[in-house]
Amino acid sequence: MLATGCRLLHASGLGRLLAPITGRRGLVFTLHSVRPDAGTQGFAPNRHLTVTPDFLEHTILQARAAGLRIVSLTEALDHAQNGDPDGPRVCAFTFDDGYRDNLIHAYPVLRKHEVPFTIFVTSGFVDRSSEIWWEALERIVRGAQSIETPIGERMRTLDASTSERKVRIYDRLLHWFTQELGEDSQRVELRRLAGIHGLDLAALADELILDWNELRTLCQDPLFTVGAHTHNHFALARLTRARMQEDIAAGMDRLASELGVSPQVFAYPYGFEAAVNHQSLEVVSQFGFRAAFTTHPGMLDGTSDRFAMPRVSLNGYFQDDVIVSQYLNGAPFPIYNTLRKIRDGVIPRRSCA
Ligand SMILES: [Zn+2]
């Protein structure tokens, strides 16, 4: 829906016309994985989380060409809260979870263009004690010829021999993991499936996720800022208040002891409405962060709730100039957010609650 809206705004010229109003004070981009083979065809259910280094570079150049100043996340916050509304707009780059390819493929691009950046680190992934389950599930389903899947009240072994079947099975398992199982049971089931299908979860984390030494190396660069992203990457809205506090505190403790930092910024795991409820905003606000970021799409302005800040995801399916130009204009988001509220039949009091 957002991509179609962007194309209509571009084709009609309306996006450019609205930009002086909708562009606000700028925006914060969210990325996850950055690697050259991001255009993988066939079964690649996490493709939306991956963009190419070329696209990242292009987006940096496009933002600057559109007159935005690329700044650190804390400078972007300063600008959103206290900046000159008539001054240049700003843009910040953030990367969630701590993918190793951020160092290998994104960092050279960011360094070349002197772009400040924040990685929101999930400390349990770096410790290899917690599982990046969506990547693991993709590997399991990709490699399986058949797989146990919950259908109705019982588990059934389904044929997973073609890409089409794998897509359907992955979607079913994703629903089971995120909406039927609790957050702890989700990881128990993941480990069980990994055992059955011979996937080494520690080796997968070594392949995909930065280690503490790599993060320490990044910390020496003033362009880099560490953000907090919990220890286990649980959807906070699905935890009790005590478990939320525990998982955020555990993440902060590990970042302090391994990197000697106490992050000023936090990103909610997943960041969408179902993962971030009012209680999680309250709990996060008690940790002394300057701000907390969702993945609710929108631009920066002085009126945003600083514990429910919007960000704009760069989606692997839509790596093109037209989409980015509309993101920079800011025109798609008020329209998109209004349509979603109408569709959902609710107008939340806070932007992500
Ligand atoms: Zn995340």
Briefly, what is this?
The chain is of the alpha/beta class. It is 48% helix and 14% strand.
Topology:
Blueprint: H1 2-12, H2 14-22, E1 26-31, E2 33-34, E3 50-51, H3 53-65, E4 69-70, H4 73-82, E5 90-97, H5 101-112, E6 117-121, H6 123-127, H7 133-143, E7 146-151, E8 154-159, H8 163-180, H9 183-197, H10 201-208, H11 212-219, E9 224-228, H12 241-259, E10 265-267, H13 278-285, E11 291-293, E12 312-313, H14 321-329, H15 332-344
This protein binds zinc ion.
Zinc ion binds at residues 96-97, 229, 233, 269.
Description:
With 353 residues, this protein is an alpha/beta fold. The chain has 2 domains: 2-129 and 210-344, Glycoside hydrolase/deacetylase (TIM Barrel); 133-202, no CATH class. It has 15 helices and 12 strands. The protein has helices spanning 2-12, 14-22, 53-65, 73-82, 101-112, 123-127, 133-143, 163-180, 183-197, 201-208, 212-219, 241-259, 278-285, 321-329, 332-344, and strands spanning 26-31, 33-34, 50-51, 69-70, 90-97, 117-121, 146-151, 154-159, 224-228, 265-267, 291-293, 312-313. Strand 10, helix 13 and strand 11 (291-293) form a beta-alpha-beta unit. Helix 1 crosses helix 14. Residues 347-353 have low confidence and may be disordered. The site of zinc ion (ZN) has 5 residues, from strand 5.
Q: Quick one: biggest sheet? A: 6 strands, parallel
Q: How much helix is in the residues?
A: 40-55%
CATH class of the largest domain equals Alpha Beta
Element-level helix/strand string: HHEEEHEHEHEHHEEHHHHEHEHEEHH
Class from helix and strand fractions: alpha/beta
Instruction: Give the name of the CATH architecture of the largest domain.
Output: Alpha-Beta Barrel
Strand percentage lies at: 5-15%
Quaternary structure type: single chain
Annotation field: number of helices: 15
Bound molecules: zinc ion
The CATH homologous superfamily of the largest domain: Glycoside hydrolase/deacetylase
Radius of gyration: 20 Å
Number of structurally distinct domains: 2
Outline the low-pLDDT stretches: 347-353
Q: Which geometry do the CA atoms define?
A: globular
